[in-house]
Hints:
Layout: H1 5-28, H2 35-41, H3 46-52, H4 56-78, H5 85-102, H6 104-112, H7 124-151, H8 162-182, H9 187-190, H10 197-208, H11 220-230, H12 233-240
Amino acid sequence: MSLSKSEQKKADREQELLDLAVSILKDEGFAALSLEKLTAQSSYSKGTIYNHFSSKEDCLLALSIRAIGSIMEMFMRALQFDGCLREKAVAIHYAYQLYARLEPTLFMTVLNSKAPGMRDKTSLERGDLLDSLEAKINSFSDQMFRNAIANGDLELPPHLSIETLYFSNWAMSFGTNALMMTAPESKLVNSLNPNTLLLQNISILMDGMNWKPLSKDWDYQKTWQRVETEIFAEDVRLLSQ
């Protein structure tokens, strides 16, 4: 259903305000963001700002919604990769790390939106939308593992659940990306190749799950490079600029 002119104008204004919020976060950090600062740096009144966001936390939640929507779109593109199921999973990890590099502030906003008490200060409607998007991400991950099990590439141990597998999968990917972004001065992080670190970590994890084909039988470095050139070449070009 198309929006009316007034609804479209409001939606465009909200995206403009979110762009400004991202700029503040990049320049001054999460603690510096406030609706007062958003008002001061925009051409809109305080009343207009509060017509969009009920609080700073509500604004951060809106940014998280933007981030998760973009990540999901990149995941869907990654699924178009022509390869086996584990290669498609590798492509999704590639998409995730690429988003983290393209939009590091928004990537970390998702984590900040999980802070204690955050949801108490946000609108119910926005919270429901975020929950809906996260449910889609969870369903997406769940199906990825179910497909591998149904195909015979992965066997689920009797003492584990699919939820355990995809949580481990997400934790490995998020943790690797977050550490590379927030601890670049660490001697350990500095000593590793950032271009292959995530691939190596998820290969260790997936080999541990016995997800076939195993790394000893397949060149996943070549897969990683193919994903970059066949699916995300334009995004990588933008990153290089």
